[in-house]
Amino acid sequence: MTSKLRIKPGLLKRLRELRDLPSEEHQARLMGVDRTTLRRINAGAAPSSAFMASLCSAFDLGLGEAFEIIADEPLGGSAPPHRAVVAV
Questions:
Q1: Of 24, 15, 4, 19, which Cα lies nearest the Cα of 55?
Q2: Residues 6+ apart with CB under 8 A from 82
Q3: pLDDT by residue (tens digit) across 28-86?
Q4: CA distance to 9, 17, 31, 35, 71, per residue, from 50 (Å)
Q5: Helix axes of 24-31 and 35-42: crossing angle, nearest 10 degrees
Q6: pTM, two decimal places
Q7: Buried b / exposed e across 54-67, counting CB within 10 Å, b at 16+?
Q8: DSSP β-ladder status, 2-7 and 82-87
Q9: For residues 1 and 13, which has the higher predicted lDDT (pLDDT)?
Q10: What per-residue confidence (pLDDT) applies to 72?
Q11: Could you say which of 33, 41, 69, 86 is the most buried, measured as most Cβ atoms within 10 Å of its Cβ?
Q12: CATH topology of domain 2-87
């Protein structure tokens, strides 16, 4: 079984709205990352530990508030894996 970590869907946009940040560029600067990094993570790329720390620090979040683990559980045979979301 393999697992993947991802940002909770819609979180970056909600945080931008809550902080009244005018753009992704402002959000990225607040976090100390590049805007393209925000877009990649928002599109489903696995976040680095540095990104996770930056996001949690900038917005005063715990890891479990910002990220979730996607566990692939093989069902056997040729069936596609079952995806279960597990809170961090």
A1: 15
A2: 72, 73, 74, 75
A3: 999 999 999 999 999 989 999 999 999 999 999 999 999 999 887 665 545 555 555 55
A4: 19, 23, 10, 15, 22
A5: 100
A6: 0.77
A7: bbbebbebeeeebb
A8: unpaired
A9: 13
A10: 78
A11: 41
A12: 434 Repressor (Amino-terminal Domain) (1.10.260)
Structure tokens at 49: 């530990």
Q: Where are the alpha helices (DSSP H) in 19-62?
A: 24-31, 35-42, 49-59
Length of the chain: 88
* Residue in the block written with tokens 């620090």: 57
SS3 25: helix
The amino acid present at 74, given as its one-letter code, is P
